[in-house]
Amino acid sequence: QMRLVESGVGLVQAGGSLRLSCVASGSIFSIHRMGWYRQAPGKEREPVATISSGRGSFTYYADFVKGRFTISRDNAESTLYLQMNSLNSEDTAIYYCASKKGGGLIAPAGSWGQGTQVTVSS
Questions:
Q1: What single-letter DSSP state applies at residue 108?
Q2: Terminal alpha carbon distance of the chain
């Protein structure tokens, strides 16, 4: 079972940027597809971005973050990242990293992190 720990709790103003990190342990990080999800207050958890295993040559994004967010990975550090730019109030949510059981944005997740709060003030 992979253990995932997110960091990057943040309060940021609208238009600002924030980078989330997720450190993995307990499994060989590089062989796993990985993804970020988010859950806003009163809403269901939704996928944000997915990255392929290995070099992470393939990435997939939800329409609402395309062009603003970038998912990346550092296999040497067993760390997943989410760079978030041009943030707006609708991006306020708890963000989770997860291992993925398949490719693509909507493939189901395997292991989950505990989540980290991102708040965007207008």
A1: P
A2: 39
Q: Is the dihedral of CA 14, 69, 24, 95 positive or negative?
A: positive
Please give the average per-residue pLDDT across 33-47, as a whole number: 97
Average pLDDT over residues 48-77: 97
118 to each of 37, 44, 57, 67, 122, how far by Cα in Å?
Answer: 12, 16, 27, 19, 13
**Average pLDDT over the chain, rounded to whole?**
95
Of 26, 24, 13, 1, nearest to 81 by C-alpha is: 24
Q: Residue 121 and residue 97: Cα distance in Å, rounded? A: 23
The secondary element (H helix, E strand) that includes residue 90 is: none
Distances (CA, A) of 50 to 3, 58, 120: 18, 8, 22
